[in-house]
Amino acid sequence: MAEYMIRDIPLAVFHTDALIIGSGAASLSCAIHLKRMGCKELLIVTDNRNGGTSRNTGSDKQTYYRLSDASQVPDSPYAMVKTYTQGGAVHGDIAFIESQNSLRAFYNLVSLGMEFPHNKYGGYTGYKTDHDPSSRGTSIGPYTSREMVRVLNAEVMRRNIPIWDQCDVVRLLTDGNKKAIGAVIQNKSKLDDASYGLSVILAQHVVLGTGGPAGFYASSVYPRVHSGSIGLAMEIGAEADNLTESQFGIASIKFRWNLSGSYQQVLPRYYSTDKDGNNPVDFLSPYFDSWESLTHAVFLKGYQWPFDAAKVPDQGSSLIDLLVYHETQVKGRRVFMDFRENLSGNPKWGEFGKAVVHITALEYLQASKAWQSTPIERLKLLNHAAIDMYASKHIDLETEPLEIAVCAQHNNGGLYADIWWESTTIKRLYPIGEVNGSHGVSRPGGSALNAGQVGALRAATRIMGYGCPPADWETLFIACAAQVSDLVGLIQKLSRPSEASMQTTKYVLDKHVSEFQQRMSRAAGPIRALDLSVQAIEEANKQLLTLSELEGIPRVYLPKVLRLRHMVLAQIWYLYAIEMYLTHGGGSRGSFLVIGKEGQIPHPLLDDYRIVGENEKLRLSMQVIFSDCNGQLKERWDACRNVPTEAFWFERVWQEFTKKTYLN
User: Fold this and answer.
1) How confident is the model at residue 499 (pLDDT cuts 50, 70, 90)?
2) How confident is the model at residue 245 (pLDDT cuts 50, 70, 90)?
């Protein structure tokens, strides 16, 4: 450790071979692979080792997606990659890598203690998940990713890999030649020190595993303890791709949780009320023509949980999402799912019962021996763990309904990286997990968990391919000293004494967060229009300027201000991507609808949602957003690379592997 004076404050400077930012499943996995491969010095830095999406999210049975090797139906990486690429806007070679390495990543977790269910012959049987034709999904229940974090964290502890907790990364550092060389961190337990809790960690490689844009949306199923920090990389010039492609779906909002799978398959009642919980209305039935069509749509919502533009017309399953959105965001009502009562239909249809349920739903429930007279009784037989999960959060599905909304759940886009998960523009920076934009328009359910584990392996392999030769740490600090000085100057300005009280500061910052999140849900949610994105960008730029002019911030709130600045910066990138996509006539695709006068009405009662069709030509390209030398946002469209088709002749592969030339 060394110490430098920057703008009259003392800064400790540490160094390590590999700096890993974040403590989710991808980051922990990368640390383990690096240690196994011989990396001598590495450090994990996290703002909250008990926070993050990996540790705090799930669904009725959270899915892990991998190549099927226990089925009578043949599977292969080439078959799997077709599923990955069917929605378009994804590089074939990266999708192939995620397919090819999925079993290696899966069995690594098994070897660490993940108890995925297998049959008596040792086969890890699977099931079909969203956008998946081949039963590649597996699960240990509602908390698959949390269990992943548990076993990975145990291995990190066993290998004595150091973790610095309660440390926000407030600036990524480069050497001036677009190479990452470390980060400035702020220890939140030392904010009152002369250093404001700041220190510098220099590194030869920086792994960014901080998850998706969790704190960006007002309607969100991301855990409240997670905000996302993709803006850190955007600030230093990292390119981003597919930022338009977020995924949305129906979720509970008192406790944030995806309502997929069993929750829908038992056919619960949907209804809305006014703001005070009065005037209940069963709002679904006017949009369906029979019990059969209504029960089919709700049942399929379990398999087809993400909102899907292609599944709105013809009384499809995503019409449910659109109607929930309309009730909450347009009518301003509250919407509930109630497992105590069955769906309500048009009186002309007769009574709800076994005889009127769509054959697909009925056969599934009967085959599962789960048909009973009420949804809660059906859920008890189909998946009691889904009830227990809510009970663990003091929510009793037998006595109360769930308030719901259409919520942001995952970003299929993110930072742009190569086949080794190294940033395309900032060398030695490796975005892994959700912050990496490896997914296309429609990804199979559970593939994000696989992508994080494969990305961790690939990044570690690349880092060890480069190696970690002795570094001149003093020279590296000199290269980034101006960046550190600028940040210190900003913090000193923010902390300049004023009359602002703690209470006033909290009110001002909470108001900023609310405006920021409402803007994102309005302009970058499941319903989009060009005028909304243009207006939102103008508002976001004004907010970023306002944040830079704040003064008198109590030190305890400095981390929140610095984090919010990066979030607003990133929001501008996301909104710009949407604006340019709509300017190109992109139309509705994936998990969002584009509406306009020229669009098609999805239902006679939904004239306000004229759906503009997809421009399918754009499936062949990926939208890349970057900042030019003047800091202005630009875009380009990269043609999607093909799936590798060369013959992998063993003797040649052996030579390339032995000489490590495959890393070139």
Assistant:
1) low
2) very high
Residue 149 contacts residue 55 (beta carbons within 8 Å): yes
pLDDT band at 497 (very low <50, low <70, confident <90, very high): confident
- CATH assignment of the domain containing 585: 1.20.58.100
Strand partners, 335: 272, 404
Is residue 564 included in any domain, yes or no?
yes
**Is residue 512 a part of any domain in this protein?**
yes
604: helix, strand or coil: coil
Question: Among residues 254, 365, 259, 279, which one has the least CA distance to residue 321?
Answer: 259
The residues that bridge with 21 in the sheet, in sequence order, are 45, 208
List CB contacts of 43: < 8 A, sequence separation 6 or more: 14, 16, 18, 19, 20, 161, 162, 163, 164, 201, 203
The dihedrals phi and psi of 628, each to the nearest 5 degrees, come to -80, -175
Contact call for residues 566 and 222 (beta carbons, < 8 A): no
The CATH number for 256's domain is 3.90.700
Of 116, 125, 124, the residue nearest 147 (C-alpha): 116
Element (H, E) at 409: strand 402-411
Pairwise CA distance, residues 377 & 132, whole Å: 29
pLDDT at position 402 is 98
42 CB-side CA count, 13 A: 31
Domain assignment of residue 511, given as a range: 481-631
Tokens of 60: 């009725």
CB 591 within 8 A of CB 526: yes
